[in-house]
Write a structure and sequence with these properties.
single chain, 136 residues, mainly alpha, 2 domains, ion transport, ATPase_put, transport
Length: 136
């Protein structure tokens, strides 16, 4: 018996494909719901995502303390080095003034690095140098 490709057979094959697509979509939806439930459960166990305003505020204070301590550390180290150089070399107050300014610059640079403001600039500069070397 030969298979006929009449309108009845074409509509049946379309119905079969539509049924398979619907079954696949239902399966995907079910897996997506299961994954969402498992993620919600793990987030609840780990305490992620549902933080209250106090924890977010504490995070902000922590970041502010880190940035300010890095800035102050740069100034203190620069001042200390300048004072030591002045005592050893007898160049008072010039070593202190110069290293205080260098410490201030180092403190600002550390804060910008920690805040992520200049990380891209450093990467961009190194890429530009590599590009120049490749062209030569």
């Amino acid at each position: 018996m030969a298979k006929t490709n009449g309108p009845d057979n074409a509509s049946q094959s379309r119905d079969n494909r539509a049924g398979a697509d619907a079954a696949r979509d239902d399966s995907l939806d079910g897996r997506r719901r299961d994954l969402g439930a498992r993620l919600a459960q793990r987030r609840a166990e780990a305490g992620i995502g549902g933080g209250d305003a106090r924890s977010r505020e504490a995070t902000g204070y922590g970041q502010a303390m880190r940035l300010s301590s890095e800035f102050i550390a740069g100034i203190v180290v620069g001042t200390g080095l300048g004072w030591i150089i002045d005592r050893v070399a007898g160049t008072s107050p010039w070593g202190l003034i110069i290293f205080l300014l260098l410490g201030f610059g180092a403190g600002v640079l550390n804060v910008l690095r920690s805040a992520g403001m200049i990380a891209d600039a450093g990467l961009r500069a190194s890429r530009d140098e590599q590009g120049k070397q490749d062209r030569d």
